[in-house]
Amino acid sequence: MSAYPQVRLRRLRRTKSLRRMFDAALPGPEKFMWPTFVMEGKNGREPIEAMPGQSRLTVDVLPAEVERVVRMGVGSVLLFGLPEEKDKDQTGSAAYHEDGVVQQAARALRREFPDLVIFTDVCLCAYTRHGHCGPLQASGDVDNDRANAILAKVAVSHAAAGADGVAPSAMMDGQVQAIRAALDAARLTDTLLMSYSSKFASAMYGPFREAEKSAPQKGDRKGYQASYGDLRQALRESLLDEGEGADLLMVKPALFYLDILARLREQTQLPLAAYNVSGEYSMLIATADRGWGDLRGMVREATAAIARAGADIIISYWASRYDEIFGEP
Ligand code: PBG
Ligand code: ZN
Question: From the CA of 183, how far away is ligand 1's center (Å)?
């Protein structure tokens, strides 16, 4: 009785009603975190060419857009700031200004949506002239320890502005420890720390760098972001961040790194986020636009894969299009 013709697996998936019973549900909107770009200015809404459906918004128009997303049930936002070009410097100091765009956005959203979970990206690449994630040494290398001190200030300023959580993405050694210590010293002991812990030097961040105007002027990020050739080191990155006091870990990108996500799932009890990055968003749109695939079908299948690999939450631009993609047709 253990083989065909007695055994016929098709019985279990023959009809739509049966499949609905046995298939795992796609993640609900509450599992999604929407990455959102906030820029200086008033009444501004700039569509991001490389990310159709996503825009840079000024702080005054942000709440209306977040309201639309919250109405669909999306649980959380992840804020990225775009300073004015003139405010960029060698160290990224505008990132911790009390009146920076992210700080303003966090305050505005906290006021209008008391229950919204607000996370902020903590990095310097959008705030430095050279576009690296920390200040540079004479050699051109990023100065790890000076970056940590600045990142800690940024995190404290975001938390003080009302963020529930801060998410350092610079991939500096010791950044989680430095930020946790600074938050504790500022008595911000309830602030969540979501580490971009296994973040790879990926070719899939192109559309995001256009959105954020944050591409490095010279060189690349391979000296600090994890190498996709070294699985063990990538896992160590996450496990070390757990030890340094992270509340959540992350694998980024998501789709090309599902093996890492699945392994990490077995090595930690912390909640895991998967960042379904800009290139993963835009490639499916580009494919659909050429008539080579059905957008809803592709996104749903990709999202199911991320959930299956072990993500507890999914950071995804699709969050703002939740109903279109995940709603009943
Ligand atoms: C900045 C940062 C990047 C992303 C999130 N935070 C870009 C990078 O590291 O170059 C990428 C997100 C995406 O592609 O959607 N440190
Ligand atoms: Zn960065």
Answer: 23
